[in-house]
Specification:
Length: 376
């Protein structure tokens, strides 16, 4: 059997049908607004999320930094959760590129402390930066924020005339978990970034959606950071295909994640960080007789299973199911975990590593992902 890659849903490959659709895409120069495939993708994205307009960008990271640039002026502050990807895994681009100061609030799973957000909104005072933005991530590390919480944040933001941006890299996973259309989630925020290059299995790209004037500003921001492309319809076609054909199947990934978690829970030294696996991502906490995360990841790799081990030595492993991982792969991965654990501990002390509870979770091959705070 081929490698079972559970590091991320970013590793998904386009299907033969998606590739064929990409090959046939009508193309033009998108800087002139003349790429029909990109125009179609943007229109479809805006429509699916119930927003006025959309902009195709090469990556989620670029979509997020362009959102900072479009909503904030240099020196403004954006409030986000302490596990936010924008804070932990985007090379400080909010600060460095957009000049935005991030102010964090406590976070449990995807849920932000709304009272802490209220207290963090700056009064109008020449000493203070201006609070320009509230930043939510949905889902965050596989956790889904309930819609009532999103509604409360949205209301708070409106009371203070502050905009809300959602890092919805996997918003369709959240929509699947909540059983609502993505537009129902997006209705609570001003703008959303979502990726077609993750569980939706397109090879490249993300969309920024929001009001028309925001997207007009975002076009300038995208140009500034070098993300305006030419005949990029050839890649955008993958995204267009994905929105039409890959959204409904996300439920399978969630089923597979639940099956994987249920099997792993039974193995010695492994605990799943949540009772209820809602989407395609969860974390394992290791304790003796399991070895360290690094050693376990290495043993799994030797046997053809890839996973994300905490970089800072925390006893934590991230697992992600996605297109290309079938039930048989889940079952085989469970067998391989059992074999790797049977080799015993490597003498590590439990609980070593981060004392803040927010380690980056990765092995050498996986880009970092912060661990949710407050996970059991
Ligand atoms: N996340 C990647 C890594 O960077 C950790 C992953 O494997 O999960 N927002 C969220 C919530 C993300 O998870 C990611 C990517 C991004 C933004 C950035 O997207 P890209 O990788 O397209 O720049």
């Amino acid at each position: 059997m081929r490698t079972i890659d559970l590091r991320s849903d970013t590793v998904t490959l386009p299907s033969a049908e998606m590739r064929q659709f990409m090959e046939q895409a009508a193309l033009g120069d998108d800087v002139y607004g003349e790429d029909p495939t990109i125009n179609a993708l943007q229109a479809r994205a805006a429509d699916m999320l119930g927003k006025e307009a959309a902009l195709y960008v090469p990556s989620g990271t670029m979509g997020n930094v362009v959102a900072h640039l479009s909503w904030c002026r240099a020196g403004d502050e954006a409030i986000c959760g302490q596990a936010a990807h924008t804070l932990n895994a985007e090379a400080a681009n909010a600060a460095r590129v957009a000049g935005v100061q991030l102010r964090t609030v406590p976070q449990q799973g995807a849920s932000l402390d709304v009272e802490a957000i209220r207290r963090s909104i700056r009064p109008d005072d020449p000493h203070y930066p201006k609070t320009a933005l509230i930043w939510v991530e949905q889902p965050c590390n596989g956790w889904v924020m309930p819609l009532e919480e999103l509604r409360a944040i949205s209301q708070l933001a409106r009371e203070h005339d502050i905009r809300v941006h959602m890092d919805g890299a996997r918003i369709f996973n959240a929509a699947t978990a909540l059983g609502v259309p993505a537009a129902e989630i997006a209705a609570h925020v001003d703008s959303v970034m979502f990726c077609v290059s993750k569980g939706l299995a397109a090879p490249v790209g993300s969309l920024l959606v929001g009001p028309r004037e925001f997207i007009a500003r975002a076009m300038r921001g995208r140009k500034m950071v070098g993300g305006a492309m030419r005949q990029a319809g050839v890649i955008a076609a993958g995204g267009l295909y994905a929105l039409d054909h890959m959204v409904e199947r996300l439920a399978e990934d969630h089923d597979h994640a639940r099956r994987l978690a249920a099997g792993l829970r039974k193995l010695p030294g492994l605990a799943v960080d949540r009772d209820d696996v809602q989407t395609n991502i969860f974390f394992l906490h290791l304790s003796p007789p399991a070895p360290s995360a690094k050693v376990l990841a290495a043993r799994l790799r030797e046997r053809g299973v890839l996973c994300g081990a905490a970089k800072d030595g925390s006893p934590i492993i991230r697992l992600v199911t996605h297109y290309g991982i079938e039930r048989e792969h889940v079952d085989r991965a469970l067998e391989i975990f059992a074999e790797a654990l049977a080799e015993g501990t490597d003498g590590h002390r439990p609980g070593t590593g981060s004392d803040a509870g927010t380690p980056e979770v990765t092995d050498e091959e996986v880009p970092s992902t912060p661990q949710p705070v407050g996970a059991a």
